[in-house]
Model the fold of this input.
Amino acid sequence: MSNAPPEPPEEQRAWFAATFNVSRETLVKLDSYAALLTEWQAKFNLVGPATLPHVWVRHFADSMQLLQLVEREGAAHRPTWLDIGSGAGFPGMVIGLLTGDSVTLVDSIRKKTVFLETVRDALGLERNVKVLNQRVESLGSVKFDHITARACAPLAKLFDWGEPYAAKSCTWLLLKGAAVEDELAEAKRRFVFEHELIPSLTDSRGRIVRAHSVRRRR
Ligand SMILES: C[S@@+](CC[C@H](N)C(=O)[O-])C[C@H]1O[C@@H](n2cnc3c(N)ncnc32)[C@H](O)[C@@H]1O
Done:
Protein backbone atom coordinates (compact mmCIF):
# COMPACT_ATOMS: atom_id res chain seq x y z
CA MET A 1 0.00 0.00 0.00
CA SER A 2 2.87 2.38 -0.59
CA ASN A 3 1.62 4.19 -3.72
CA ALA A 4 0.06 7.55 -2.92
CA PRO A 5 -3.24 8.38 -4.64
CA PRO A 6 -3.11 10.74 -7.63
CA GLU A 7 -4.54 14.27 -7.37
CA PRO A 8 -6.63 14.42 -10.59
CA PRO A 9 -10.06 12.90 -9.92
CA GLU A 10 -10.13 11.21 -13.35
CA GLU A 11 -7.08 9.13 -12.43
CA GLN A 12 -8.40 8.02 -9.08
CA ARG A 13 -10.65 5.19 -10.23
CA ALA A 14 -7.77 3.51 -12.09
CA TRP A 15 -5.51 4.03 -9.09
CA PHE A 16 -8.14 2.45 -6.84
CA ALA A 17 -8.51 -0.55 -9.15
CA ALA A 18 -4.75 -1.11 -9.31
CA THR A 19 -4.14 -0.57 -5.61
CA PHE A 20 -6.83 -2.87 -4.31
CA ASN A 21 -6.95 -5.34 -7.17
CA VAL A 22 -10.75 -5.57 -7.16
CA SER A 23 -12.90 -7.30 -9.75
CA ARG A 24 -14.56 -5.49 -12.64
CA GLU A 25 -17.93 -6.39 -11.17
CA THR A 26 -17.00 -4.65 -7.92
CA LEU A 27 -15.84 -1.55 -9.80
CA VAL A 28 -19.15 -1.39 -11.63
CA LYS A 29 -21.01 -1.65 -8.31
CA LEU A 30 -18.88 1.17 -6.90
CA ASP A 31 -19.73 3.23 -10.01
CA SER A 32 -23.40 2.78 -9.12
CA TYR A 33 -22.68 3.75 -5.52
CA ALA A 34 -20.87 6.92 -6.71
CA ALA A 35 -23.79 7.79 -9.02
CA LEU A 36 -26.33 7.39 -6.19
CA LEU A 37 -24.18 9.49 -3.89
CA THR A 38 -24.03 12.28 -6.48
CA GLU A 39 -27.77 12.10 -7.10
CA TRP A 40 -28.71 12.16 -3.40
CA GLN A 41 -26.09 14.75 -2.51
CA ALA A 42 -28.07 17.24 -4.59
CA LYS A 43 -30.99 16.81 -2.16
CA PHE A 44 -29.32 15.97 1.15
CA ASN A 45 -25.93 16.85 2.44
CA LEU A 46 -24.51 13.36 2.83
CA VAL A 47 -20.76 13.98 2.50
CA GLY A 48 -18.59 17.08 2.36
CA PRO A 49 -19.38 18.56 -1.09
CA ALA A 50 -15.68 19.08 -1.88
CA THR A 51 -15.04 15.34 -1.46
CA LEU A 52 -17.52 14.27 -4.13
CA PRO A 53 -15.16 14.51 -7.15
CA HIS A 54 -12.67 12.45 -5.10
CA VAL A 55 -15.06 9.68 -4.11
CA TRP A 56 -12.66 6.87 -5.15
CA VAL A 57 -9.97 8.10 -2.78
CA ARG A 58 -11.77 10.05 -0.06
CA HIS A 59 -14.53 7.51 0.47
CA PHE A 60 -13.97 4.17 -1.27
CA ALA A 61 -10.22 3.81 -0.68
CA ASP A 62 -10.48 5.40 2.76
CA SER A 63 -12.91 2.61 3.67
CA MET A 64 -11.10 -0.19 1.81
CA GLN A 65 -7.79 0.35 3.56
CA LEU A 66 -9.31 -0.99 6.79
CA LEU A 67 -9.67 -4.43 5.26
CA GLN A 68 -5.91 -4.73 5.01
CA LEU A 69 -5.62 -4.22 8.76
CA VAL A 70 -7.52 -7.29 9.90
CA GLU A 71 -6.48 -10.91 9.65
CA ARG A 72 -8.83 -12.71 7.27
CA GLU A 73 -6.96 -15.84 6.21
CA GLY A 74 -7.65 -18.83 8.43
CA ALA A 75 -10.26 -17.06 10.55
CA ALA A 76 -12.38 -19.57 12.46
CA HIS A 77 -15.60 -17.95 11.30
CA ARG A 78 -16.76 -15.10 9.11
CA PRO A 79 -16.43 -11.92 11.15
CA THR A 80 -19.31 -9.62 11.95
CA TRP A 81 -18.94 -5.84 11.75
CA LEU A 82 -20.59 -2.84 13.38
CA ASP A 83 -20.15 0.57 11.72
CA ILE A 84 -21.08 3.37 14.13
CA GLY A 85 -22.56 6.52 12.54
CA SER A 86 -22.33 5.23 8.96
CA GLY A 87 -23.67 8.39 7.33
CA ALA A 88 -23.49 7.69 3.60
CA GLY A 89 -21.93 4.27 4.26
CA PHE A 90 -18.27 4.89 4.99
CA PRO A 91 -16.58 2.69 5.83
CA GLY A 92 -19.24 0.04 6.53
CA MET A 93 -21.03 -0.27 3.19
CA VAL A 94 -17.76 -0.62 1.28
CA ILE A 95 -16.65 -3.35 3.71
CA GLY A 96 -19.95 -5.16 3.22
CA LEU A 97 -19.58 -5.00 -0.56
CA LEU A 98 -15.99 -6.18 -0.63
CA THR A 99 -16.17 -8.95 1.97
CA GLY A 100 -19.71 -10.30 1.91
CA ASP A 101 -19.41 -10.38 5.72
CA SER A 102 -22.36 -9.49 7.90
CA VAL A 103 -22.16 -5.72 8.47
CA THR A 104 -24.52 -3.63 10.60
CA LEU A 105 -24.69 0.06 9.69
CA VAL A 106 -26.18 2.32 12.36
CA ASP A 107 -27.15 5.94 11.99
CA SER A 108 -29.62 8.02 13.95
CA ILE A 109 -30.59 10.27 11.01
CA ARG A 110 -33.45 8.87 8.97
CA LYS A 111 -32.53 10.41 5.59
CA LYS A 112 -29.10 8.79 5.88
CA THR A 113 -30.49 5.34 6.59
CA VAL A 114 -32.95 5.69 3.70
CA PHE A 115 -29.94 6.42 1.48
CA LEU A 116 -28.08 3.45 2.97
CA GLU A 117 -31.03 1.13 2.27
CA THR A 118 -31.18 2.43 -1.29
CA VAL A 119 -27.48 1.74 -1.89
CA ARG A 120 -27.64 -1.65 -0.18
CA ASP A 121 -30.52 -2.76 -2.39
CA ALA A 122 -28.97 -1.32 -5.58
CA LEU A 123 -25.74 -3.23 -4.90
CA GLY A 124 -27.56 -6.47 -4.02
CA LEU A 125 -26.31 -6.56 -0.43
CA GLU A 126 -29.64 -7.30 1.26
CA ARG A 127 -28.33 -10.60 2.64
CA ASN A 128 -25.31 -9.30 4.48
CA VAL A 129 -25.81 -5.58 5.15
CA LYS A 130 -28.26 -4.53 7.85
CA VAL A 131 -29.24 -0.86 8.19
CA LEU A 132 -30.50 0.43 11.54
CA ASN A 133 -32.04 3.86 12.02
CA GLN A 134 -31.40 4.39 15.71
CA ARG A 135 -28.84 5.64 18.16
CA VAL A 136 -26.05 3.15 18.60
CA GLU A 137 -26.47 3.22 22.38
CA SER A 138 -29.71 1.21 22.08
CA LEU A 139 -28.70 -1.84 20.04
CA GLY A 140 -29.40 -4.38 22.80
CA SER A 141 -27.43 -7.55 23.46
CA VAL A 142 -25.42 -8.08 20.28
CA LYS A 143 -21.68 -8.65 19.83
CA PHE A 144 -19.40 -7.89 16.89
CA ASP A 145 -15.92 -9.03 15.86
CA HIS A 146 -14.99 -5.66 14.38
CA ILE A 147 -16.18 -2.15 15.18
CA THR A 148 -15.51 0.71 12.78
CA ALA A 149 -16.25 4.43 12.72
CA ARG A 150 -15.18 7.47 10.74
CA ALA A 151 -15.78 11.11 11.64
CA CYS A 152 -18.46 10.21 14.16
CA ALA A 153 -17.30 11.02 17.69
CA PRO A 154 -14.13 11.27 19.80
CA LEU A 155 -12.40 8.00 20.66
CA ALA A 156 -13.61 7.87 24.29
CA LYS A 157 -17.20 8.36 23.12
CA LEU A 158 -16.85 5.62 20.51
CA PHE A 159 -15.50 3.26 23.20
CA ASP A 160 -18.36 4.29 25.51
CA TRP A 161 -20.92 3.48 22.86
CA GLY A 162 -19.29 0.41 21.33
CA GLU A 163 -17.77 -1.41 24.30
CA PRO A 164 -20.99 -3.28 25.24
CA TYR A 165 -21.09 -4.72 21.71
CA ALA A 166 -17.46 -5.76 21.39
CA ALA A 167 -16.84 -9.51 21.21
CA LYS A 168 -13.93 -10.73 23.36
CA SER A 169 -11.40 -10.59 20.54
CA CYS A 170 -12.92 -7.51 18.87
CA THR A 171 -10.66 -5.39 16.66
CA TRP A 172 -11.64 -1.72 16.48
CA LEU A 173 -10.71 0.24 13.36
CA LEU A 174 -11.30 3.95 13.82
CA LEU A 175 -10.41 6.54 11.21
CA LYS A 176 -9.10 9.64 12.92
CA GLY A 177 -7.69 13.07 12.11
CA ALA A 178 -5.08 15.41 13.51
CA ALA A 179 -6.52 15.38 17.06
CA VAL A 180 -5.91 11.68 17.51
CA GLU A 181 -3.20 12.01 20.18
CA ASP A 182 -5.47 14.14 22.40
CA GLU A 183 -8.33 11.71 21.83
CA LEU A 184 -6.09 8.78 22.80
CA ALA A 185 -4.99 10.54 25.99
CA GLU A 186 -8.62 11.15 26.98
CA ALA A 187 -9.63 7.58 26.10
CA LYS A 188 -6.71 6.18 28.16
CA ARG A 189 -8.07 7.97 31.24
CA ARG A 190 -11.33 6.07 31.00
CA PHE A 191 -10.49 2.82 29.21
CA VAL A 192 -7.75 0.20 29.21
CA PHE A 193 -6.81 -0.93 25.70
CA GLU A 194 -4.00 -1.88 23.37
CA HIS A 195 -3.62 0.05 20.16
CA GLU A 196 -1.52 0.86 17.13
CA LEU A 197 -1.62 4.10 15.16
CA ILE A 198 -1.46 3.45 11.44
CA PRO A 199 -0.96 6.20 8.83
CA SER A 200 -3.88 6.63 6.46
CA LEU A 201 -3.28 5.77 2.83
CA THR A 202 -5.58 8.52 1.65
CA ASP A 203 -4.93 11.47 3.97
CA SER A 204 -1.46 12.54 5.06
CA ARG A 205 -2.81 13.83 8.39
CA GLY A 206 -5.15 10.90 8.96
CA ARG A 207 -4.45 8.03 11.34
CA ILE A 208 -6.20 4.75 11.89
CA VAL A 209 -6.51 3.60 15.48
CA ARG A 210 -6.48 -0.19 15.55
CA ALA A 211 -7.45 -1.14 19.09
CA HIS A 212 -7.94 -4.40 20.96
CA SER A 213 -9.04 -5.50 24.43
CA VAL A 214 -10.98 -2.31 25.13
CA ARG A 215 -12.48 -2.26 28.63
CA ARG A 216 -13.69 0.42 31.01
CA ARG A 217 -11.52 1.39 33.94
CA ARG A 218 -13.22 0.58 37.23
C1 LIG B 1 -19.95 13.20 10.28
S1 LIG B 1 -21.01 11.88 9.96
C2 LIG B 1 -19.86 10.66 9.35
C3 LIG B 1 -20.52 9.65 8.49
C4 LIG B 1 -19.61 8.59 7.88
N1 LIG B 1 -19.09 7.68 8.88
C5 LIG B 1 -18.50 9.19 7.06
O1 LIG B 1 -17.37 9.23 7.54
O2 LIG B 1 -18.77 9.64 5.95
C6 LIG B 1 -21.39 11.23 11.56
C7 LIG B 1 -22.64 10.39 11.58
O3 LIG B 1 -22.78 9.79 12.86
C8 LIG B 1 -24.15 9.73 13.18
N2 LIG B 1 -24.27 9.60 14.64
C9 LIG B 1 -23.77 10.45 15.57
N3 LIG B 1 -24.04 9.98 16.80
C10 LIG B 1 -24.72 8.82 16.65
C11 LIG B 1 -25.29 7.88 17.55
N4 LIG B 1 -25.19 8.03 18.86
N5 LIG B 1 -25.90 6.79 17.04
C12 LIG B 1 -26.01 6.61 15.70
N6 LIG B 1 -25.50 7.49 14.79
C13 LIG B 1 -24.87 8.57 15.26
C14 LIG B 1 -24.70 11.03 12.59
O4 LIG B 1 -26.08 10.94 12.36
C15 LIG B 1 -23.90 11.19 11.33
O5 LIG B 1 -24.55 10.66 10.21
Notes: Residues 47, 85-88, 90, 106-109, 112, 135-137, 150-152 surround S-adenosylmethionine (CB under 6 Å).
